[in-house]
Amino acid sequence: NGPIEKSEEVVQLEMPTHLQGLSEMAGRVEGDVVSAHYGAVGEMAAVVCECLGDEELCKLLMGLLGGLTDVDGPASSGTCIMLNTIIKLRGDQFLSQVGPLVSGMIVALGKITHEKTVNGTLHSIRTLSRHHPLPVINALIESPQPHSPHVITSLQAISKDPELLEILLDHTFDVLNNSQCIETTKDGDVASKDSQNATCTLKYVFSVLPSSYLLDERLAAFFSTLVLRFGTTANVGGDKPRKELIEAFVTFAKQVENEEMEALLTSESCLLSDTAYPPGVMKLVACFGKSYPDSILPVYNYILPYSKGNFKGQRLMVTAVYAEMVNWSTNEEILQNIVNALLISMNDDHLCLLSIIGLGNSTSGTPELANKFAPSVIDALMSVIEHKVEDICMESMNGLNNAFKVVEASRVQPILINVFNRIRPHLAKKSPKIRASAFRLLGTLSRFGSGLNGKVFLDLMHANLPAVILHLTDADRNVQIACKETMRKAIPLLGSEELNALIGRRWFDSNIRLPFDSFSNDFAKKFVAAFPDLVPNYVMSTIEFFQSDWPQLRASAALFAGDLLGYLPAHQRGTLNAGIVCTAFINL
Predict the structure, then answer these.
(1) Nearest Cα to 411, choosing from 496, 78, 419?
(2) pLDDT at 224
(3) Which of 2-16, 71-85, 179-193, 509-523 has the lowest mean pLDDT?
(4) What pLDDT does residue 310 have?
């Protein structure tokens, strides 16, 4: 074993291609041109991506997060460039680290002191989103509530990318409309955190989207989702979810510059109620329909699947939309589908009231459509006119009132007697709303007081007119007005010019207080002269009110009966049962 001879051969090592530019990069870094520094850092980041494996690169990324908060602006910006470049080139490999990376960048945003670095970090979050959109979006919206300003700006940064915006919106809509929005706990139902986070996310996104996008691309989806959300924020253990929804809705209204919608959202206190919110939602739907008539069909198509939604609140909101939509939709096929849906939902106690309102509104369109739907609508409304729930009774009469204003007489003639008989008990109900609806409907029936039904109608009206006259002194102002309206519609059909002149006085203006003593005297005098044979029936009907629970009605009945008797000629008083009449007055 002799000594090893020294070789004179020199081994030439060839630098890998991706490292060959390092010397030149180093030279640029040594210079004073900051932009050259940044360019070199970006190129170095690309070299690093070539050299390191996934695990090492992840460790490097996590380590870079601390550099974002460097007090030296160029240093933090350089860190940002390296971070963004690595994510851009190798982001596909970082799925398992999305949560820590997003969390780290959000924390860093709270400490960064240079605006350029803030913007660069937001750009890095958006770059990571292009590789893993839903994981990044979820990492942001699942951040602790209330969301920090940096979470909000990150979501807004993502929404500025058209493709990411579509993914963000699709995900948000899916959470709000199709996920388990309501969770059951031992203390009752609560709104899920995911649904609350999604609601807030919509608010953030609305605030940066241009009105042109909101009004064009997804207008129906935005509006429908917000309306459906009302149904999943009722009875969830607090008003926070509902307030978040209204804030999002207000932001939407502001962005599309719809002042009427914004005013409704801020003034309708019922929208915060767990039970009384549907009428407020219907006002929003009416505003939407008036403002964006071309979106009626898209809204109908969007909410249609939720008529069988998992949550009763969603089904309630669909019914509320239908109930209002029939007022401004002119598409016959859609109207027919809505009417059919409302007829079916009447059988659901939870949806019955709104269904009745919707059916009543269904005749507000063209006369042709009103008459087409009239048979089924009138039958349905008549079936609940004596419902045990007073609001349903009232809305059934309001709906019939709407229908009878426009339908052809042939639709009503066969049921006229039945309608009168079904209304009569409601004239004396304790609820003033019920009484007002009943008297108003009685007046509308005057449309059918001529022609073949003339004699029948007059008999029915004479049977009910004493009640109308006496309720002119009803304690409720709306009932008084309803009775005045009915008098002006019904009296002309009696055929007395003097009575017509009487109700033409300003006494019957809605804003004028009727002096009942003067009216009673004048009406009795003219009525006795025109219809002496009917006076006994009127007197007997009037003294029935001597048993009324309302003192004002008892007093008015005594006055009116006395006036009728006073003007009745002596030779006709024998047609009255004096014993019954005298006993009634004595016992009053």
Answers:
(1) 419
(2) 97
(3) 2-16
(4) 85
Q: How far is CA 312 from CA 37, 235, 251, 272, 492, in A?
A: 61, 11, 27, 18, 49
Between CA 269 and CA 266 the distance in angstroms is 8
Q: How far apart are CA 412 and CA 525, in angstroms?
A: 34
Q: What is the residue whose two structure tokens read 């009917």?
A: 534
Q: How far apart are CA 321 and CA 283, in angstroms?
A: 10
The pLDDT tens digits of the residues spanning 147-195 come to: 999 999 999 999 999 999 999 999 999 999 999 999 999 889 999 999 9
262 closest CA partner among 247, 273, 272: 247
Where residue 451 falls (left for φ over 0; alpha for ψ -120 to 50; beta otherwise) is left
State the DSSP H helix or E strand holding residue 568, giving kind and residue range, or none if neither.
none
Do residues 471 and 515 make contact, with C-beta atoms less than 8 angstroms apart?
no
Q: Which residue has the tokens 């995911």?
A: 194
| Backbone conformation region of residue 190, classed left if phi is above 0, alpha if psi is from -120 to 50, else beta | beta
The Cα–Cα gap between 13 and 132 comes to: 40
Which is nearest to 361 in space by CA: 300, 417, 284, 282? 282
Q: What sign has the CA pseudo-torsion 121, 160, 135, 129? A: negative
Q: How far apart are CA 199 and CA 241, in angstroms?
A: 8
Residue 6 has pLDDT above 70, yes or no: no
Q: Please name every residue paired with 556 in a beta bridge, in sequence order, or none if there are none.
A: none
Is residue 403 within 8 Å of residue 361, measured between CB atoms? no
CB 147 within 8 A of CB 195: no
Q: Report the alpha-carbon angle 268-270-271, nearest 5.
A: 75
Q: Which two tokens stand for residue 16?
A: 């890998």
Give the type of residue at 540: M
**400 close to 419: Cβ distance less than 8 angstroms:** yes
Alpha helices in 132-270 (DSSP H): 133-141, 149-159, 162-178, 193-206, 211-216, 219-231, 240-255, 259-267
Sign for the CA dihedral angle at 274, 275, 276, 278 comes to positive
> Phi/psi of residue 285, each to 5°?
-65, -40
Rounded to two decimals, what is the model's pTM? 0.85
**CA separation for the pair 508, 500 (Å, rounded):** 12
Tokens of 417: 């007697």
- What is the distance between the alpha carbons of residues 99 and 90, in angstroms, rounded to a whole number? 16
Residues in the chain: 588
Largest CA distance in the chain: 164
What are 331-374's pLDDT values in tens digits?
Answer: 888 999 999 999 999 999 999 999 999 999 998 877 888 888 88
Q: Is residue 442 within 8 Å of 423, Cβ to Cβ?
A: yes
Q: Taking the CA atoms of 485, 490, 492 and 497 in sequence, report the sign of the dihedral they define.
A: negative
pLDDT, residue 43, reads: 77
Pairing label, strands 182-185, 188-191: antiparallel
Angstrom distance (rounded) from CA 194 to CA 310: 17
* 550 has a pLDDT exceeding 80: yes
CA atoms within 13 A on the CB side of 544: 12
Alpha carbon 391 to chain centroid distance? 20
Return the closest-CA partner of residue 305 out of 216, 215, 188, 173.
173
Query: Is 525 or 581 the better-scoring residue by pLDDT?
Result: 525
